What we know:
Blueprint: H1 18-34, E1 36-37, H2 39-46, H3 50-63, E2 68-71, E3 76-79, H4 91-100, H5 127-139, E4 143-149, E5 153-166, E6 171-177, E7 182-187, E8 191-196, H6 211-214, E9 216-223, H7 230-236, E10 244-249, H8 253-259, E11 262-263, E12 277-279, E13 312-314
Parallel strand pairs: 7-13, 11-12
Antiparallel strand pairs: 1-3, 2-3, 4-5, 4-8, 5-6, 6-7, 9-10, 9-12
Helix pairs in contact: 1-3, 2-3
Amino acid sequence: MTINASNARPPDVEDLSYPQRERLAYLEFRLCFFGEASRPDLYARFGVAPAAATRDFALYRELAPANIVFHGSSKTYRIGADFSPIFEHDPKRVLSALAQGFGAGVDGASGPMLPCESPAMLSVPPLGVLAAICRAIHAGRPLAIRYHSMSSGMSRRVIVPFALVDTGLRWHARAFDRKSGEFRDFVLTRIESPQELDVDVSPGERAEADIQWTRVIELDLVPHPRVQRPEIIRMDYSMTSDVLRVRARAAVAGYMLLRWSVDCSPDHALEGEQYRLWLRDPLALYGASSATLAPGYTSPVPERDTLPKAVNRKG
Length: 315
């Protein structure tokens, strides 16, 4: 059976196999952020044969002819003057790839794709602990652990973890603690000897029962009133108006505000160059278990009148 070329429609990205889309997206990534791409780039990333790489470049040129120009002298493809991406490139993932590489391969060998500097990660959880926590979350099983707390030292506990949280300074697991009967944050570097238990988990121990986890609050962040050029702050945070509205779980909002150095005092009283944003309505944090971490936050009512003590704690 033959196909009339005049009736054949051009290829569509959605019709491609997943491996093809992945290779073409990487090819486009190289064009977009490096200005050029070559067959060796595909060899190094995917291990494809030269003929397959040639077909990938030909297919991409068919999909987006204005995006790519072949330069015979260097045998490379360069970005076209009218380049317009056909794949979505999330800025966070792009920055991660540029700073750390893609991390492909069994040995995990990787490195920055361009000169990049980022803060060193000082708190790295032991791989065995991280793996045990991840398996327990995936399986919905409790873990017996030894935990070292700043307030009470070492204790043996049984926790039911259901999420990992990156605070920017450390990683912790959000979990139900059977010892206290509360949902708490357990810092991964303080966990030892995790053992998965083959026992049932009750509905009251799952994420759906964690009020602080399921409660999502809206936070209105504005340029700090003391800043002389608020328009620059709007640029820094891609504000389309005078307010940057973000949503966060009550259990983690305080960590986020601390990481961003947001002044959460009611009268924007905090001084220091790090405070470029102000939480316009600190009452939005009322009742959030993580609010005590927010810079400058003070509860509008005495501690005993906030949410019940048994709802949430930090481990």
